[in-house]
Amino acid sequence: MDISNVDPVFEILLEYIKRSRGFDFTGYKRSSLMRRVMKRMHEVEIENYSDYIDYLEVHPQEFIQLFNTLLINVTSFFRDESAWDFLRKDLIPRIIARQAPSQPIRVWSAACASGEEAYTLAIILAEILGIDEFRERVKIYATDIDEEALAQARQASYLSKDLAGFSPEMLEKYFERIDQQYTFRKDLRRSLIFGRHNLTSDAPISRIDLLVCRNALMYFNAETQAKILTRFHFALNEGGYLFLGKAEMLLTHAGIFVPVDLKRRVFSKAAKLGFRDHLLTFPQSNRDESNSQKSSQVRIRETAFDSSPLAQIIVDSDGFVAQVNERARLLFAINHSDIGRPLQDLEISYRPVELRSCIEQIYAERRSVSLRNIEWLSASSEIIHLDVLVTPLVDTQGTSIGASISFTDVTSYKRLQEELQQSNQELEMAYEELQSTNEELETTNEELQSSNEELETTNEELQSSNEELETMNEELQSTNEELETLNDELQRRSEELNEVNEFLEAILISLRGGVIVLDRNLQIQVWNHRVEDLWGLRKKEVLGQHLLNLDIGLPSEEIRQILRTCLSGESEYQEIVMDVMNRRGKMVCCQISCTPLINSSKEILGVILILQA
Predict the structure, then answer these.
(1) Does residue 168 have a cis bond before it (omega within 30 degrees)?
(2) Strands in 115-253 per DSSP E
(3) Residue 275 pLDDT grade (very low, low, confident, very high; cuts 50, 70, 90)
(4) Which end of the chain has fewer CB within 10 Å, C or N?
């Protein structure tokens, strides 16, 4: 098959993909698109497009493989390093210099694939601004049509081979290592918002200072490229910059972008264009060169009107429906046959809002009428909220020629307003965005994605907290085991001590003589039963008492003398025989032996008295 020619069956395949999966590839270059489809067909051993359509109907999972083949995600960190050096040293300093210190910096990375270019932008801006100012001022919107690539980008996790160009210092500064993966810093990750976006059909993100779309336009045909570039022009602030891939040029669109550095494919936004100028940026078809310039312009205007993201109805001055764009036909179930009928014959004239009185008002007052937050039950039985704007159409002579009725879907605004009451700083910005004008409707998608990013971050933090609690539980279990081991040891020591005490008690009981053990202060520490029998004082009554303070009939001076001699270390043994009075009041002859109580360090801890009566 000659892929340079358009195959009608191939167009049927593209229409089937659009109808069944919502992916519109009709704007892509046919040569590269057909080449990739044929590559996938060869992999599943199918020869023609008709059979491949049948194969897709029977095997719906094949769509995933087909889209992965069509949506080539080739990207890396700091790809084309000289171009990134130009951004770092020249372009971004210009953006920062022209803004107030508190003014936010908004960057859009379109067709971001798996996120490497978005994180490259974050690293460059953080290096220039500093980490704290980056977190305060920078917001990077990264979009792609490929959900699988976006899921990988949101994880912000890469292998070491993906970061081969980073120095160890840069890796440590911007990434956290987890096993064999490197994850972008969470505090900086919050400044990046990833979301699905179709460059050919979705509304662009607005108020952008730097728009990066590298090597994506090359896959579209000239007409679709012009459509995308017009949206890029709308997205950029005055003086904003567009950064393309090295394979892309804007030679046919010099009117809306001017080169800043052609070698590195950096362009700046030209002066603000009017609606008429925007229409002229669309390429004109060469299929029928015999048509007049006026007819071509009419087709362009009709195409632009029909592809508008806002539902819109045009009514002429006689009250007949002149035009209804695709969005309005789908939303209000209006058929092509209804065009040319009186508006009052259609349900839309009084539901969801009374339009005839509004049209009469704008004709009388010559100004637009706006109706806010109108409820409408869609064909899918879903309640949606609409803002309705009725605008008079006036020709160059000032004559009213009709009315334009536009419907803006603000259902997402209503949902965000409820969520904003319980959200944090990220959602406060969303609240501000929700108060913007109808022309900034696309920022709703951007703020909603910010909410999702915040919830993902919260989930990650909760997972981290759970891991910390599990670690603490393991540590407590380990500590408990150590305490149990220590308790067993103490119990064993207690048993040993009890055995020693019993053994010592047995020795004291077995001695024939009385035994008194004194500390250095002559306080009683041991008092065995022989001494109890001698003087009638139980051990509990005397323990801790000064020996010489006891009224038991011991001669104090004689006993004090031998105790001092032993405590001073002058003698290792003293003996004295004296008469003492026992518990019965009888005088008995008692032999008293005194020896020092010495520990292993040769220190005298007290004395031991042995009495033989």
Answers:
(1) no
(2) 138-144, 157-159, 175-178, 181-184, 192-196, 208-213, 236-244
(3) very low
(4) N
